[in-house]
Specification:
Elements: H1 2-12, E1 16-23, E2 26-35, E3 40-47, H2 56-65, E4 74-76, H3 83-91, E5 112-114, E6 117-119
Parallel strand pairs: 3-4
Antiparallel strand pairs: 1-2, 2-3, 5-6
Length: 120
């Protein structure tokens, strides 16, 4: 549900620009951008699994780069182990700036503890 909300927010927000890749009148990929006073951020992107490696994502990134007007700076993030997309970014001239690990803990079912009392 969290990812669905994130996707809906990206597609419906006036703060985001979403570019689409279409093959045979079918959307097969997208890249969502958010502009700030400092940079253009690639927020969310995907290409249909069976079309990965076909150049669609590279084309989407190149089109996104045309929207970078502030300082010509583009930021983007991914999992550290997502080497495929990192290779594409490197070929397009992107350089790693910093990295960090984010750990998602599955806490369901979860419990809240407030002032020593338990609520479920």
């Amino acid at each position: 549900m969290v990812y669905r909300n994130w996707i809906n927010e990206c597609f419906q927000s006036e703060q985001h620009i979403t570019l689409y890749a279409v093959v045979d009148d079918k959307p097969v990929g997208f890249i969502t951008l958010r502009s700030s006073e400092y940079a253009l951020e690639i927020v969310l992107n995907a290409v249909e699994r069976e079309l990965r490696g076909s150049g669609i994502y590279t084309d989407l990134c190149m089109e996104a780069m045309k929207h970078a007007t502030r300082n010509n700076l583009i930021t983007v993030s991914t999992q550290l182990s997502n080497f495929g997309v990192q290779r594409i970014w490197a070929k397009l001239g992107f350089e790693p700036f910093y990295s960090f690990s984010l750990l998602h803990l599955n806490t369901l079912p979860f419990q809240f503890f407030v002032s020593g009392s338990e609520r479920k």
